[in-house]
Design brief:
alpha/beta, six-stranded antiparallel sheet
């Protein structure tokens, strides 16, 4: 049952009755009139229609402003206000349709009926996320229990065109939520664009204040309040101007600091260069001598190549002479060489003939072996055939004996079988058994299915039990880690332990959080870094891990007074104040740290803990500037970078200190870590939350699994009982059938046995013809084998004769080959003795070639060096060397290599004799000159940029500040006036600051005459006072608001009756003025005799589990009230 039964039905069907009821109420003037009005508010207010609104538009004209920012349509709705809301399967609603009024809408109803659900629907249906509501984190939790999806549909007013309808569908099966605009599929981005064009701000607490966010409004900082107020009521450009001013001011501060540093550094550079001029003059003289040395060294390759080229020419001439001598000797020895070659050919021919004969002998021998194998195979074939014939004859005799015995057996069986018995019909019994079998099969299938389900449940139950045990064990281990740290703290620092116990018992005394001691507040993300982190933080003996960190200064003063002054405890307590986030940023990202220095992390990124504690540790121990790696890397590169004063490699802590005495430099101290004693065991908080959540899920699963097993057991018992009954019935039917069929089955079996024996007898009598055929075939085969063997024997004799003839021929060829070989060796030996002098000349010629090649290679190397000569010279020496090089190519050098070496040594001695007090003066002087030019340009550029920034800031500020002051002045006027009406004091003012990100709007209130105006905070005022201040501030924005509707959920909670009554009247008066934004006020309770006017619409939530199937018509309720008034 939805609210449609109490809102839409009343609006459409009962307007005349409500009007009549009002007349009767005025006419009777009864004493109980006000109570009856309160009881019938929901029905009476549904009569508000667009015509009533237009007719009564001037009734409250004294309270309206003429400059209403939102023009209304003829029906009273402003652009972007909500015309209709439809919910399906959303939270508590199956279906709900709501038509709010154009101005003030009060949504009332008991707790838990779904008032705040409507607020949730507005936020989520208009592009918001669950985080805006402060309720469920997952949007699927807004789907009604038992449903698979929920739908939100919101119709928004358009004054110049057709209304726009936005629909959002939430699905359990998908993380995404489909969107539609005017029933056409669209994207979330397009929905947000449409919402923005209508100036709807569901993420602004000044416009949209859900129930779970009411307390957060008073906790907004002045800066946050300024931002939200500008968005809600300021001109379009004000937020953009403020953001520009903030960004430009940050840039200006950074640039100003950089500019001042650059100026100081530029002055230092110029002063230092002035003291180097004497040394620079000496160094220029020395540079001239070194330039001459460089020219001489560049000439060396030219001299070396000239000498190498001369040596190569001489070697080439010697090679040509040796070649001519060798040619003459070869011509004189040519006839003897011809005879040697002829004898070599004859010897080779005899050897080839012998090889052919040897191959023929081998082939004849292999053929003899094959012929003998074929003869042996033929003998074996004949013997096998004769053996097979003997076996066939023995089997034929046995067959005749078996045939006679089988004829006698058949005659005996026919005599014993007797006549055929009568036939009995068993079809009905068979059908009954078949039906039983079908039912048994179905039972078996069901039993198997249940057994499988039971097995699966048992498996899931065991897995569930094991996983619960494992999760409980992990939680216990995590708790033990915290307890171990606490026990260790008690043993090592008893005062710190007592301070912690006192803080645990008295946390309510403090305004904010007090963290500590730090060793209980932080954990190391990776235990392999525990020793590193503990050492950097001072270890067990240091004070950092025992420090208590306070969020507020007053908490710091109170805590130290109570524990250190009164209890005389020796504690370390700190209040870090405001820490600039930029001052504790690491020098670079971890990706850049890994790439440039091969380091893994900064220490701060290894810790998990409250942000304030981590900021404090960065401020005190500089853990954001200390890089860490457990792998090997180059410590020299890190030291020389001048970026890190401390760094950690493997198990060593390196501390780099600069010193300026002498020539200056760096000193690196190395310290090894001790094993961690405090942070060795760290708690993974995210894992702990996941385990706790998983335990709840597992316990719920265990209950479901056990209920499923119990249900399966009951089903199996029922099926087992049915199976027993069916089997008993089947056994009875089978026994009956067995008696009927037994006699006939026996006769048929005997008949079949006789028929089988007769078939076997026919088969045995047909076998003699086949045996005789097989014997004849085998005898024929034996005859053919004997003839073939005779042919093989004749062939073997012929092959043997050929083999003998070939062996004789091979022996003759062998003797011939030996003769020619001996003759060739003899003439070759004689030729060798005659050609010894030729061989010597060849060796000399070979050596001449090698010498020439070596000289050529050396000359080539020096030639390459000569080509590269002068490449390393400075630019100013190149022209001088090119002249020398061109002269060398034409006529060579006047100096040889030795003379050049002497000249180099002489000039080098001159350069060494010139000494300067600062050898690097020239380099430093020139480097500084370049740096002076660079920083001069930078100083001028920064000054120009600062001037431009100042002009831009001043220009935008002249636009923004007057508009802000005017806006806040209008808000203050309404806010102060509203507070005066409730006999209190309140003001709203701008809080300026040098930095625009610290500008804010401050709300100051005074609820008692004996106190001063105090800043509205989330702690100083009571809950009711904060609620009053919040709603009056929001009402002060009502006439200025740019958003088409505003929502406040249960703002009256915590107010006393006096304030609630006055605030209610203030809300109604402001929210029902002509042209103001649509207003939604949600509350579970109302006082009696509250202020009311006709522009309000009251929506009663009539929703719950036990609703009647048909609601009583609103007309009946109105008539009952009318009758009571008349009779009373």
């Amino acid at each position: 049952m939805s609210s449609s039964q109490s809102s839409r039905a009343g609006m459409k069907n009962e307007r005349r009755d409500i009007t009549s009821l009002r007349s009767d109420i005025k006419r009777q003037k009864l004493d109980n009139l006000q109570n009856i009005k309160n009881n019938t508010t929901a029905l009476r207010d549904e009569d508000s229609s667009s015509s009533d609104y237009n007719n009564n538009n001037g009734s409250d004209s004294s309270d309206e402003e003429n400059d209403a920012p939102l023009p209304a349509d003829r029906d009273g709705y402003v652009e972007g206000s909500i015309v209709r809301i439809i919910l399906k399967d959303f939270v508590t609603y199956d279906y709900c349709e709501i038509e709010p009024g154009p101005q003030m809408n009060m949504i009332i109803g008991p707790n838990g009926t779904g008032k705040s659900t409507i607020v949730c629907a507005i936020a989520l249906g208009l592009g918001g996320s669950p985080s805006l509501l402060g309720r469920a984190k997952n949007i699927t939790e807004f789907i009604k229990t038992g449903a698979d999806e929920a739908t939100i549909q919101i119709e928004l007013k358009r004054t110049r065109e057709r209304n726009v309808v936005i629909q959002r569908t939430i699905q359990k099966s998908s993380k995404s939520t489909p969107w539609k605009i005017d029933n056409k599929t669209t994207t979330h981005k397009e929905v947000l664009s449409t919402i923005a064009r209508l100036n709807i701000q569901v993420d602004n607490l000044c416009q949209f204040l859900p129930q779970d966010k009411v307390s957060e409004f008073a906790q907004l900082t002045p800066s946050q309040l300024l931002e939200k107020t500008q968005e809600a009521a300021g001109k379009k450009n004000m937020s953009r101007w403020l953001q520009q001013l903030i960004e430009w001011r940050q840039t200006q501060k950074t640039l100003q600091k950089s500019h001042e540093g650059s100026q100081m550094y530029l002055k230092t550079l110029m002063d230092r260069n002035a003291g180097l001029e004497k040394d620079v003059f000496k160094l220029k003289q020395r540079e001239a001598a070194l330039n001459k040395v460089a020219i001489l060294k560049a000439m060396l390759p030219l001299a070396k190549y000239s000498e190498a080229k001369t040596a190569y020419d001489e070697a080439k001439e010697d090679e040509k002479s040796k070649k001519d001598q060798l040619q003459a000797l070869e011509d004189s020895h040519r006839p003897l060489q011809i005879a040697v070659n002829r004898q070599e050919r004859e010897s080779a021919s005899a050897s080839n003939t012998l090889a052919i004969l040897k191959d023929q002998v081998k082939q004849h021998a292999e053929k003899l072996v094959r012929d003998m194998d074929n003869i042996d195979k033929s003998k074996q074939t004949v013997l096998s055939a004769r053996s097979e014939i003997e076996g066939l004859k023995r089997r034929e005799e046995q067959r005749k004996a078996d045939t006679l015995a089988l004829e006698n057996k058949i005659a005996y069986a026919k005599e014993k079988l007797g006549p055929e018995p009568a036939v009995n019909n068993t079809d009905e019994i068979n059908k009954t058994i078949e039906d039983i079998n079908i039912q048994l099969s179905q039972c078996a299938d069901k039993t198997l299915e249940l057994r499988q389900k039971d097995t699966e449940c048992s498996r899931k139950k065991n897995e569930n039990i094991n996983e619960i045990a494992e999760n409980k064990k992990e939680l216990a281990e995590m708790q033990n880690i915290q307890e171990r740290r606490l026990r260790n703290l008690r043993q090592t620092h008893e005062d710190t332990y007592k301070g912690f116990q006192w803080l645990r018992a008295n946390r309510s005394m403090f305004k904010g959080r007090i963290y500590g001691p730090i060793q209980l507040a932080v954990n190391v993300k990776n235990e392999q870094y525990a020793s590193i982190v503990e050492t950097v933080l001072g270890g067990e003996k240091g004070s950092h891990l025992r420090t208590f960190v306070c969020e507020y200064q007053e908490d710091y003063q109170l805590f130290t007074r109570e524990t250190i002054d009164k209890l005389n405890l020796k504690l370390t307590v700190s209040w870090p104040g405001e820490i600039d986030a930029k001052s504790i940023q690491p020098l670079m990202s971890e990706e850049k740290l890994k790439k440039e220095y091969n380091m893994d992390h900064f220490v701060v990124n290894l810790l998990d803990g409250p942000p304030l504690v981590l900021k404090y540790l960065c401020q005190q121990s500089k853990i954001h500037l200390i890089p860490v790696t457990i792998n090997q890397c180059s410590q020299e590169k890190i030291v020389n970078s001048d970026k890190f004063k401390k760094f950690i490699i493997k198990s060593n802590l390196y501390e780099v200190n600069k010193y300026s005495y002498g020539k200056g430099g760096r000193q690196t101290a190395i310290r090894m870590f001790k094993p961690a004693t405090i942070l060795a065991d760290s708690i993974n908080n995210e894992l702990k939350q996941n385990i706790t959540k998983r335990l709840s899920e597992l316990e719920a699963e265990a209950t479901v699994i056990q209920e499923t097993k119990n249900d399966i057991t009951r089903q199996r018992e029922t099926i087992s009982q049915k199976e027993n009954e069916l089997r008993h019935e089947k056994e009875s039917q089978q026994a009956l059938k067995k008696d009927v069929n037994l006699r006939r089955n026996r006769w048929q079996a005997g008949k079949m046995e006789i028929e089988s024996m007769e078939e076997d007898l026919i088969l045995k009598k047909s076998r003699p013809d086949k045996a005789a055929q097989d014997i004849k075939r085998l005898e024929t085969h034996i005859t053919s084998e004997v003839i073939a063997r005779a042919k093989l024997s004749s062939q073997y004799k012929t092959s043997l004769q050929s083999y003998v003839d070939t062996v004789i021929e091979r022996n003759s060829g062998s003797l011939t080959a030996l003769y020619f070989s001996a003759k060739y060796e003899a003439i070759k030996q004689f030729s060798r003795l005659q050609m010894k002098d030729l061989s010597n000349m060849r060796e000399m010629y070979t050596k001449a070639i090698e010498t020439s090649a070596e000289k050529k290679k050396t000359a080539h190397v020096y030639f390459k060096d000569a080509e590269r000569a002068g490449n390393d010279l400075k630019e100013e020496l190149l022209s001088e060397f090119r002249e020398i090089f061109e002269k060398w190519k034409i006529s060579g050098l006047d100096e040889n290599e030795m003379e050049l070496e002497d000249a180099i040594n002489s000039e080098s001695a001159k350069a060494d004799a010139i000494k300067a007090s600062n050898p690097r003066a020239m380099e430093n002087y020139e480097n500084r000159l370049a740096e002076i030019d660079k920083y001069t340009a930078k100083v001028n550029s920064d000054k120009h940029r600062l001037d431009e920034l100042s002009k831009k800031i001043e220009t935008v500020k002249l636009h923004w500040e007057p508009r802000l002051n005017k806006l806040v002045s209008r808000i203050n006027a309404k806010f102060s006036e509203a507070f005066q009406r409730i006999d209190c004091v309140g003001e709203v003012c701008v809080s300026p600051h040098e930095d625009f990100d610290k500008w804010g709007i401050e709300i100051r209130v005074k609820f008692r005459g004996n106190e001063k105006l105090q800043l509205l905070t989330g702690q100083r005022q009571s809950g009711g006072e904060r609620a009053v201040s919040t709603i009056l501030y929001l009402m002060s924005l009502q006439a200025l608001a740019k958003a088409p509707f505003r929502t406040v959920d249960e703002i009256n909670q915590g107010m006393d009756q006096r304030n609630e009554r006055m605030i209610h009247e203030e809300i109604v008066r402001e929210a029902t003025k002509s042209g103001t934004a649509q207003y939604f006020l949600i509350t579970p309770k109302l006082l009696s005799d509250l202020y009311y006017n006709d522009r309000m619409r009251v929506l009663c939530i009539y929703n719950g589990e036990w609703l009647p199937t048909q609601a009583k018509p609103a007309y009946d309720c109105l008539q009952s009230v009318k009758d009571n008034l008349i009779s009373g």
